[in-house]
């Protein structure tokens, strides 16, 4: 696993919406905006709430890999993060996420907890060395 | 092919940065922010400039499919667009793009023109019917 640096953690915390990409087993790419995406204290685990995933969930069930990037207004760096995915629909972690989401609003279904363990981080800033592996 | 509606075209025109997803043939997802991404007048063709693509280009060479979404501040709808990709590094279309990009700044390499023919459009707004095919 790979831990984000302090600089990357700060950028991650400022993000409101992340583009989250998955692919089917046969290689059909998909990308959606996600709001509930939280870096855990270990700096190497991301919790994503599945409220409305359809193609994304199907992809993750058959091909448990995800990619997202950290970048936007007021964000210092531009990092692409890839990781291995585990889907949880019960257990302690799922219950914890479920309670937090329901506390925000009962309208969110919080169907599943998508746990992403970071495996790689890449540069994605133009004029730097985009595509270069950083971690 | 699929033509965007007038409403979708208006939203598309307001976007500054698009999240652009691809996948390797073996299904490894990738997503990057792209700035030079322009809907053509036919409403069904998107021109993307490859300035710094690395994994994205490798993916497109072996698996010519792409996905992006239209959404953000001041954007009315939320649409996910998928399409078939053709890479052009010479010819009339490539030359046209190359000149336009170089006119902005000589620092952009404009390595290739990524032509995406839209094949599907999906809803991606929360509380609507996210994942539903619209076109």
From TrEMBL, chains A, B:
Record-linked InterPro entries: Pyridox_Oxase_N, Split_barrel_FMN-bd
Record domain Pyridoxamine 5'-phosphate oxidase N-terminal: where: 4-123
Name of this protein: Pyridoxamine 5'-phosphate oxidase N-terminal domain-containing protein
Taxonomic path: Archaea, Methanobacteriati, Methanobacteriota, Stenosarchaea group, Methanomicrobia
